[in-house]
Amino acid sequence: MNLTTRAAWGALRMPFSGPWEFTSCRLDETPIAPPVTHEDALTFEAPPRAIVTLRVRRAEPSAVR
Questions:
Q1: Rounded Cα–Cα distance for residues 41 and 36 (Å)
Q2: Shortest CA distance to 39 belongs to which of 56, 64, 22, 62?
Q3: Is the backbone of residue 17 left (phi > 0), alpha (psi -120 to 50) or beta?
Q4: What are 20-55's pLDDT values in tens digits?
Q5: Is the pLDDT of residue 64 over 70?
């Protein structure tokens, strides 16, 4: 949640190596963007006064880009 009037950046670091699939979604977990796959961390931007919701799950090893 970004309570400020300016965009903010954040990072989500996973406790162990992935691959991990991160999907931007609504609070009910309906995807609003295609998933992205990373090994251990994701950086993201939170627009002003926005709530950022991410669904995170283990990805198939072949899905790492």
A1: 11
A2: 64
A3: beta
A4: 999 999 989 999 999 999 998 999 999 999 999 999
A5: no
